[in-house]
């Protein structure tokens, strides 16, 4: 009997041990990873759903916006199209040293100094000041800067800022024929009496468009420039009634003229022979032959049956204005559309005359 009971207890103990081992295998620990099912029996969606997820992702670092450095203050010494020749231009270092030496001797110019200077492509001299320099401090000491640079008192030195240029026509130049035309100072005084202009920052003072010695009437045109960062001052001024010397004047936008140049192949204005695509023309008669072959190929000369040795006596013909003059004549009216002086051709010297540039 005892043996039978002992046998049943042994079987029961064995079952309990087996059950305990099964329970231990079915419990998952946090460090265990579930087994993957065979790929043949798992769908793509299931595999994607069971893919391990990254605990954390590296956050994207946003680019730090670069700090904009303040721009220095620049003033321009303007020579109005007649700069000193390159060989006569003072070295930038000497210009800066002379200005700083002059300013250092003035008590009211304390802290004012030029950090650099250079010549630009137009032949104007650019003076650069530190960004914290006030415009009023520089403008108050422009006479000292002119003195240090050896410039006359009327030399234009203005702030390098966006500007607009305007032309006023119908301005009285004199009251009697035997009087000289009004000076630049008189023009400036009359111009600033207009409230719309007095509030502007004039960068280039008014001057006559034509040379004063060529103004033979009572009226002529002047031009001047002013700071205009967004163009609003120009638009407002063109709509304003302006007066000078007690009479109304007409304002319009100044349009820069291209530099005068002339081709020696076709003799047209506005380009040089290096860019010419037109056939050869004669500078004398305008026919399609060279100037050297004029007497042998000119239509008028051949009609007169003149020998090559005898000079021609028929009128010339300009290819630009159809006038009775050579194509390179300095008094051709078509030249008024261009800025003078400039090099006319590759072989002719520059035209001597007033510049129309500011």
What class would the helix/strand composition place it in? alpha+beta
Judging from the principal axes of the Cα atoms, what is the shape? extended
Q: Ends: how far apart?
A: 133 Å
What's the mean pLDDT score?
80
**H/E element sequence:** HHEHEEHHEEHHEEHEEHH
User: Which band does the percent of strand residues land in?
Assistant: 15-25%
Number of strands: 9
Number of helices: 10
Fraction in helix = 10-25%
Radius of gyration: 43 Å
Q: What number of domains?
A: 3
Give the strand order, joined by hyphens, for the main sheet. 6-7-5-9-8
**Main sheet summary:** 5 strands, antiparallel
Given as residue ranges, the uncertain stretches (5+ residues, pLDDT < 50) are: 27-40, 341-358
What would you say this structure looks like, in words?
- There is one protein chain.
- This protein is of the alpha+beta class and 358 residues long.
- The protein folds into 3 domains: 73-159, 2-Layer Sandwich (Alpha-Beta Plaits), CATH 3.30.70; 163-253, Alpha-Beta Plaits, CATH 3.30.70.330; 257-351, no CATH class.
- It contains 10 helices and 9 strands.
- Strand 2 and strand 3 (125-129) form a beta hairpin.
- Residues 27-40 and 341-358 have low confidence and may be disordered.
Summarize the structure.
With 358 residues, the chain is α+β, with helices and mostly antiparallel strands. Helix content is 24%, strand content 15%.
Summarize the SSE layout with pairings:
Blueprint: H1 2-26, H2 44-49, E1 73-78, H3 92-104, E2 116-119, E3 125-129, H4 135-140, H5 142-149, E4 156-159, E5 163-172, H6 184-191, H7 195-198, E6 202-208, E7 219-227, H8 232-238, E8 242-244, E9 247-253, H9 294-297, H10 299-303
Antiparallel strand pairs: 1-3, 1-4, 2-3, 5-7, 5-9, 6-7, 8-9
């Amino acid at each position: 009997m005892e043996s039978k009971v002992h046998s049943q207890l042994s079987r029961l103990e064995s079952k309990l041990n087996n059950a305990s081992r099964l329970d231990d295998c079915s419990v998952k620990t946090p460090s265990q990873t579930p087994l993957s099912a065979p790929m043949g029996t798992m769908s793509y969606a299931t595999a994607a759903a069971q893919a391990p997820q990254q605990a954390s992702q590296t956050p994207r670092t946003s680019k730090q916006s670069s700090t904009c450095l303040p721009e220095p203050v620049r003033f321009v010494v303007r020579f109005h199209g007649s700069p000193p020749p390159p060989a006569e231009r003072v070295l930038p270092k000497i210009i800066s040293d002379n200005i700083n030496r002059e300013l250092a001797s003035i008590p009211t110019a304390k802290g004012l100094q030029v950090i650099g200077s250079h010549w630009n492509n137009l032949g104007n001299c650019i003076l650069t000041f530190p960004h914290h320099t006030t415009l009023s401090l520089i403008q108050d000491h422009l006479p000292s800067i002119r003195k240090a640079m050896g410039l006359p008192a009327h030399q234009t030195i203005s702030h390098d800022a966006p500007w607009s240029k305007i032309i006023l026509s119908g301005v009285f130049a004199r009251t009697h024929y035997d009087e000289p035309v009004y000076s630049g100072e008189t023009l400036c005084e009359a111009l600033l009496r207009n409230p719309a202009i007095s509030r502007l920052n004039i960068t280039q003072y008014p001057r006559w468009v034509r040379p004063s010695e060529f103004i033979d009437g009572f009226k002529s045109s002047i031009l001047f420039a002013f700071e205009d960062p967004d163009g609003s001052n120009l638009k407002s001024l063109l709509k304003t009634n302006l007066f000078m010397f007690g009479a109304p004047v007409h304002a319009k936008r100044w349009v820069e003229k291209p530099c005068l140049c002339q081709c020696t192949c076709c003799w047209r204005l506005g380009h040089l022979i290096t860019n010419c695509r037109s056939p050869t023309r004669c500078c004398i008669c305008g026919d399609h032959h060279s100037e050297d072959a004029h007497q042998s190929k000119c239509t008028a000369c051949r009609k007169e049956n003149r020998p090559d040795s005898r000079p021609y006596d028929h009128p010339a013909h300009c290819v630009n204005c159809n006038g009775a003059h050579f194509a390179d004549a300095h008094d051709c009216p078509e030249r008024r559309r261009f800025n003078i002086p400039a090099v006319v051709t590759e072989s002719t010297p520059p035209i001597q005359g007033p510049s129309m540039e500011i």
